[in-house]
Amino acid sequence: MNDMNNYGEKSCEMRKYMYVSEKEEQYRCCGRQQHREDIIVKTGSVKTGGGNFTMIAGPCSVESEEQIISIAKAVKAAGANLLRGGAFKPRTSPYDFQGLKAEGLRLLKLAKQETGLPIVSEIMGVNDLELFEDVDLLQVGARNMQNFDLLSELGKTGKPVLLKRGLGNTLNELLMSAEYIMSKGDTQVILCERGIRTFCEHTRNTLDLSAVPVLKELSCLPVIVDPSHATGYARLVPPMAMAAAACGADGLMIEVHNDPENALCDGPQALKPDEYLKLSDKISRIRKAIED
After folding, report:
1. CA–CA dist 178, 39 (Å, integer)
2. E strand or H helix that includes residue 48
3. Least C-beta-crowded within 10 Å: which of 34, 150, 179, 191?
């Protein structure tokens, strides 16, 4: 009986080893076999990964100068390291607000000048690269995770890239998308788990927190979590953000709006500045508990 148990344990270990090895062989740039140490991504003076935790916060969409500067100041006071804001908005309906585009990027830069926070914004196409010259962290949204032409061009820029997991994509597909960027020479890639589409009807998506330790096992890249897009409801963001911090994520991306009820995009999932402040304090305590 003991021999059978030992055989079973060895068989399980062998299958686990084969799974990890086979996957890692595909990841020539981001795999753990190639890079045992964590890659630290630098966005301006902000570091993500390798023990550095990053708080990214801001509205889903830039709406006005007053709005983005007000939110930028509030999230910075609450401990955010990077300011997020959508200028180009990929929307399911062509009749929904599509963002202020170039004007939105200009307003983001004003907010950066006011607060010193590096800015994060989503790029949707290769043709827009020139407009994003002053954006510090280029975000690839879920819908563009497998836009390979865009990924390859971003890899040539050498700029930090935030790569979100697609709505129905596997972790292998996410890492292969990262390979498209890194194979062109850019090692500054952050992975983002933002929820996947399942049969659940009570949340916008299903937040796959198991992705965090798996990605960190397979890859040397930092992994952050976006609980806002994952849950779709502001009341669910704090518990999932705390769970993400507890399971080893390298950062959080959270939507914050000063007037969610009248937001032009995704208001129901945005925290108010005072709610973000309370959450930020809890995240700090969770991280301290983990380190201890």
Report:
1. 13
2. strand 46-48
3. 34
Q: List Cα–Cα distances, 222 to 52, 125, 212, 249, in angstroms.
A: 9, 24, 9, 8
Number of residues written out for the chain: 292
DSSP symbols for 193-226: E--B--S--SSSSB--TTHHHHHHHHBSS-EEE-
Single-letter residue type at 275: E
pLDDT digits (tens, 9 = 90+) for 88-113: 988 888 888 888 999 999 999 999 99
Chain-centroid distance of CA 263 in Å reads 21
Tokens standing for residue 207: 């937040």
H and E: helices and strands count for the chain: 9, 10
> Tokens standing for 274?
């005072």
**Among all chains, which residue has been given the structure tokens 């939110």?**
71
The answer to whether 52 and 82 are in contact (CB under 8 A) is no
Nearest to 205 by CA among 188, 220, 184, 227: 227
Residue 217 CA to residue 17 CA, distance in Å, equals 12
pLDDT confidence band for 15 (50 / 70 / 90): very low
Written as one letter, the residue type at 110 is L
What phi and psi, each to the nearest 5 degrees, are found at residue 201?
-110, 0
Q: Quick check: 223 and 215 in contact, CB under 8 A?
A: yes
Of 184, 192, 223, 208, whose CA–CA distance to 38 is shortest? 223
Beta strands at 189-193 and 161-164: parallel, antiparallel or unpaired: parallel
**pLDDT at residue 16 tops 50:** no
Q: What average pLDDT score do residues 70-74 get?
A: 98
Token pair, residue 91, equals 């929307």
Q: What is the pLDDT of residues 192-218, one digit of tens each?
A: 999 999 998 999 999 999 999 999 999
